[in-house]
Amino acid sequence: MVDLCYYEVLNISKTSDKTTIKKAYRKMAMKYHPDKNPGDTKAEESFKAVNEAYQVLSDDKKRELYDRYGKEAANQTSGGRGSARGFDDLSSMFENMFKSGFGQRQKPKSYSYELDMMIELQVEFIQAIKGVQKEVSYSYKTPCKSCKATGAKDGKLGRCSSCDGVGEIHTQQGFMTFAQTCPHCQGSGQSATARCSDCGGQGFETKETRFKVDIPAGVNSGNRIRVGGKGNIAPDRSRGDLYISIVVKKDEHYERHDDDIYLEVPVFFTQIALGCVIDVPGLDGTLELKVPPNSKDKEHFVFRGDGVPNVNSHRKGDFIVQLKIVYPKTIDAKQKKLLEELQKSFGIQSKPNEKKFQDILKKAKNWFK
Questions:
Q1: What average pLDDT does the structure give for the chain?
Q2: d(CA 13, CA 224)
Q3: Which of 56, 264, 270, 368 could make a disulfide contact with 62, Cβ separation 3.0–4.6 Å?
Q4: Which helix (H) or strand (E) holds 22?
Q5: 363 membership: H or E segment, kind and range
Q6: Distance between terminal CA atoms of the chain?
Q7: Which of 137, 157, 155, 135 lies closest to 145 in space, CA to CA?
Q8: Is the CB of residue 60 less than 8 Å from the CB of residue 53?
Q9: What residues form DSSP beta bridges with 256?
Q10: Contact at 8 Å (CB) between 313 and 11?
């Protein structure tokens, strides 16, 4: 299963605090609210996704479960809401997840790596806009069979010398004592007395794999796609998730800002004077740009709804054309004569500076007497 993670739904980073999450939720909820989008099923789906994401990320426990184990684990906590079995379901979920009774301390993991992992995937500019199926090649960790992911020769562990087998390291700051999980044994209280020769004491082997993943239309750099069950493998054969961080390559002609596309169109100065119609290469075909006479340099012309589809709502942004007036670098004798004749034909209009500064120039003559 492939879906955008909750952080992407709210368009926030994984380190966002509660205030940022709440602000993002309000903004997205207002944008996709059914009252503002009557009859729009896609907006309704986005509204539901926004609410689902907020319910998880605004709750510290659910957010921790989501970050560690994914969407399914986080949403199990609300499975018994409104029923007499709510607490039993919650207890069962924790019991299954941590392999212990509800309320008991989580058993320290015996391996040294995280199950969830992230890779980068480069996508061509137009592929990100249209959507594409890409083949992903990456390496993942699987537990060493010789040492059963312990990193110890023949899987034999001794007491951890760093924490003396307690699993915690205590530090004193003033009259306060702080405890943290031992970084050497990950809280197990045991460590290798001799390294496993097969894995070099790491406790895992690295394997290469590849598979095809659908990249949805409208993704942008920084978007993350979660692929369930494609991460690292634990000794009990459970598997983490793979997060794919999208990197979109730049295009030499188009420039993207969120869901809007900008394109600079060169227009010759005579076309500006006379007005013209230009065929512009849009994202879905040719767009007809009507340039009125005397248009300004860098003036914008907007084609509504011809931009990039939003990765969540699928609503398209705008396609914006910016004019760039081009003048001839050189002119020949014939062209110069024609321009001089054109200049004369306009009379006083061809010298707007003289008309504008006529009074000032008269006054300036007296300044130097």
A1: 82
A2: 10
A3: 56
A4: helix 18-32
A5: helix 352-367
A6: 87
A7: 155
A8: no
A9: 261
A10: no
Strands 168-173 and 176-181: antiparallel
What is the rounded CA–CA span in Å between residue 48 and residue 80?
A: 19
Q: Using one digit for the tens of pLDDT, what is the confidence trace for 284-327?
A: 999 999 999 999 999 999 999 999 999 888 899 999 999 999 99
Angle (deg, nearest 10), helices 18-32 and 41-57: 160
Strand partners, 227: 2, 242
Instruction: Please give the pLDDT value at position 68.
Output: 73
83 DSSP assignment: S
Q: Which residues on neighbouring strands pair with residue 212, listed in sequence order? A: 135
Closest C-alpha among 255, 238, 211 to residue 121: 211
Indicate if the pLDDT at residue 275 is higher than 90: yes
**In angstroms, rounded to a whole number, what is the distance separating the alpha carbons of residues 191 and 149?**
12
Q: Spell out a b/e string for 338-352, using b for 16 or more CB atoms within 10 Å of the CB, else e.
A: eeeeeeeeeeeeeee
| pLDDT score for 175 | 63
- pTM beyond cutoff 0.70: no
Q: Rounded to an integer, what distance in angstroms lies between the CA atom of residue 227 and that of residue 215?
A: 11
Domains of the chain and any CATH numbers: 109-156+194-249 (2.60.260.20), 254-326 (2.60.260.20), 333-367 (no CATH)
Amino acid at 12: I
Q: Show the CA angle centred on residue 186, arms to residues 181 and 192, nearest 5°.
A: 135
Mean pLDDT of 331-343: 91
Euclidean distance between CA atoms 288 and 27, whole angstroms: 35
- Whether 105 has a pLDDT exceeding 50, the answer reads no
Cβ contact 240:109 at 8 Å: no
Query: Tokens 């003033």 map to which residue?
Result: 174
> Residue 11: exposed, middle, or buried by beta-carbon count in 10 A (0-12, 13-18, 19+)?
middle
